[in-house]
Amino acid sequence: MLDFELLRTFVAVADCGGFHRAAERLNLTQSTVSQQIKRLELETKRPLFRRTTRSVALTDDGEMLLGDARRLLQFEEAARHRLAAPRLSGTARLGVVEEVASGALPSALGRFAKLHPGVKLEVQIGVSAELIEQLNAGRLDVVFAKRPLGTSKGRLVWREPLVWAAADTFDLIPGAALPLALYRERSVSREAALAALNDNELTWEITYTSPSLTGVRAAALAGLAITPLPVSALIAGLRILGVEDGLPRLPDLEFAIYEKARPDKAAAALAAVLLTLVQGPSRPAI
């Protein structure tokens, strides 16, 4: 019989790419996470991770277990909520960035609706800074957004690379200002991109702005400009430009869940479902 607590830790290490990040996500010490993985490897009689001084990667056996572990945890979570959770009612107001809304959000909300049919959902899509402001002002209950760079607030869900994206047919012109397609204002991706360009003393020009991911991605697809995107937001017709193309490396993006100071039961239940069902870059969902 596999221990669900050990499976939950195993999935967190796989999603976060390391023991330290998994410990942050689970609110455990790194030594506790390491001990739990050792216990699971003893129970399964298989090595689940390849460890080096710089990285942690799944073994072949670990890859096979990961999908089963996710399904088992989902079944366990669903059964626990059905049997133990009280019938909830009221309204849960969710703010979410488009990168998440276009991925696993529909399935997560569908799951929540099945668990708590008496709760009405209100969903707003926007830019991280604006959504977090609305949460702080009491107009939203839960926010799923990109963490502002240099902060550690919120409950970390995953990290993923931020990359320069351009059309397959786009050519950089030597000596010319870099044409950029960016969110209009106060975007984590926008701030990271401009800081990286300025730190490397590169010449750039904002030629296209949009309030949405769809808009900046469309500009890149049309060959009008390059744009910073999380790697999960890349689609056919776009390629990654990197340091070999003369562009600076960009920082990883962190996606986190924020809750109001005193969440009611409906909001807390929504945050719990989002944390369980939405996974990081190694996940198939996004």
From TrEMBL:
The record's section on InterPro entries has: LTTR, LysR_HTH_N, LysR_subst-bd, WH-like_DNA-bd_sf, WH_DNA-bd_sf
The cross-references to PROSITE patterns, in alphabetical order and at most eight, read: HTH_LYSR (PS50931)
Q: Where is the HTH lysR-type domain?
A: 2-59
Q: Name one GO molecular function term.
A: DNA-binding transcription factor activity
Q: Which UniProt keywords apply?
A: DNA-binding, Transcription, Transcription regulation
Instruction: Tell whether Transcription is among the UniProt keywords.
Output: yes
Q: Which family does it belong to?
A: Belongs to the LysR transcriptional regulatory family.
As for what it does, the entry says: NodD regulates the expression of the nodABCFE genes which encode other nodulation proteins. NodD is also a negative regulator of its own expression. Binds flavonoids as inducers.
User: This protein is called what?
Assistant: Transcriptional regulator, LysR family
